[in-house]
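Kindly inspect the following:
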Amino acid sequence: MTQRTPTLLYIDDDDALARLVDRGLTRRGYKVVHAASGEEGLERIRNAAVQGCIDVVALDQYMPGLDGLDTLEQIMAIPDAPPVVFVTASQDSSIAVTALKAGAADYLVKDVKGDFIPLLHVAAEGALRQAELQRAREEAEAEIHASRDRYAALAAERELLLREVNHRVGNSLQIIASLLHLQASSAAQDEVKAALTNAMGRVAAVAQVHRRLYTSQDLKSVMLNQYLDSLLEDLRRSAEGNRMSRLTVRAEPIEIDPDRAVAVGIIVNELVMNAVKYAYPDGAGPIHVELTSKGEDLVLSITDDGVGDAVKADPRSTGMGQRIVAAMASKLDATVERDPNHSGTRIILRFRRTPEAPGKANTAAAG
C-alpha cells in the first residue's frame, strides 16, 4: 500500500522564505501549501477539515492582520485541527511559553536564510507522531467507554432477568406451598397432615429467599433479619394456627448470600416446627429465634421453655427433620449443639458469615 505524502501548511507573509520551506520540505517528502496571512491560513484549515488534506501547520508569529498567537487560538478552536509548529524570528522565550500553552505542538526560531528548515522537518515529524498517538489514545478511550457502556447495559439486563427469574421462582414456590396447605387442610390422617404441613414450611422457606431477592437492591445477598421476620410470619399463619401466638424473633441486621440464607431458613423452619409439636404437650408456649454476630461468626439459637429432655419420643416420627437440619448445617459448615443448662430446649448453631475458602480450611486442618 502506497503511503500518502503528508501536507504541511506554511503560514507566513514572507514569500521568499515560503519558497525556501517549500523546496526544503518537498525534498524531505512533504507537500507544502503556503498561506500569506493568518486569515488565509484559517480558511485553508477550515476547508481542509472537510477535504482532509492538511496534516500539520507551521505558523509564523509576526504577520499583518492576525498575528501568530491570535491565529493559533482560532486554529485550536477548529474541530480536529491539525497540529501546529509555532515559528518565529523572536528570541523572546515568553512567546514560546504562550504558544505551547495555547496548544502548539512545538516551537522553533527561524532565520531568513532557511537554515531552520531541517529543524522544521524534525518538528513536523514529531508533531505528526504526537497527533497520531493522541488519536490512538482517544480511539482507545472511546472504545473503553463504549465497552463500559455495553457492560453496564448487559449488567442491567442481567439484573433485570435475575429479578424476573427470582420473581417467577418465588411465585411458583408459593403456589406449591399453597397447594400443600390446601392438601394438608383436607387430609384426614394426622400423619399425612403433619407431613404436608412440614413440606409446606420447607417450600415457603425457599420461596421467601426468592421473594427477598426480587425486591432487594442487591441480588447477591439477603438481609437475614428481614428474611427471618417474614419466614416466621409465614409460620404463624401456617396450619398450626394459634400455637404460634408466642413465636418471637430477634435478629441483628446481617447480610448473607442467598444459598446460605436458604439453609438457615430451612433449619429455622424445622426446629421451630419441632418445638411446636413437642415442647408443649398441653398447649402453646414461647418459642424464641435469635441471630447474633460475633465478628465473622454467626450464632443462631432456637429456644423453648417446654419439657426439654422429658419429651416422649413420637413413634410416628421418621427423623426426617433431624436429617434435614444435619444436611443444612453441613451446607453451612455449622456446629450444632444443645444447651445442657437450659431447662427446656435450646439448639445453638455457629457458622461463618461467608464460606471459608477451601485452601484455608485445608491448611487449618493440616495444622
